[in-house]
Amino acid sequence: MQENEVKTRPIRVFRCGAVAAAIWVDHRVINDAVVKVHSIQITKNYRQGDEWKRTTTFTTEDLLKVAMVATEAYKFLRLRSEEPAEPVNGRRPAEDMDISSGTESYPAGHPTFQSHQGQGPEKEVLP
Question: Fewer beta carbons within 10 angstroms: which end of the chain, N or C?
Fold first, then answer.
């Protein structure tokens, strides 16, 4: 790495076994405005002898894991949470009602996710 280069890290990594989706952010100028552009890199780690390697080739058995980490990356980039609205006449607005379990986010301690704090970018481990 050269003197002026800054090594960037992904802003978020989702893992399912050996398969990982890393989300990267880049700033680009589009129509005279600086915008954030996200890219997602999906890889699989494997061991060859004593050496760890990374590939972007997957087996049939890896495809569900690829789909899971891709879905979580999409949800991270597209779903936004907001503070719930104040109740009206003692009832919450319909859009704040919990009509499906776990679609927006998983609470801390949920068995589906384990957060690894203090290890660089936030990493999520999927079952």
Answer: N
d(CA 92, CA 99) in angstroms, rounded, equals 12
Domains held by the chain: number: 1
Give the domain extent around 127. Answer: 1-79+111-127
**87 in any annotated domain:** no
Find, among 116, 64, 105, 109, the residue nearest to 82 by Cα.
Answer: 105
pTM strictly above 0.85: no
Helix H segments across 1-127? 63-78
Q: What is the pLDDT of residue 80?
A: 75
What DSSP string describes 8-45?
---SEEEEETTEEEEEEEEEEEETTEEEEEEEEEEEEE
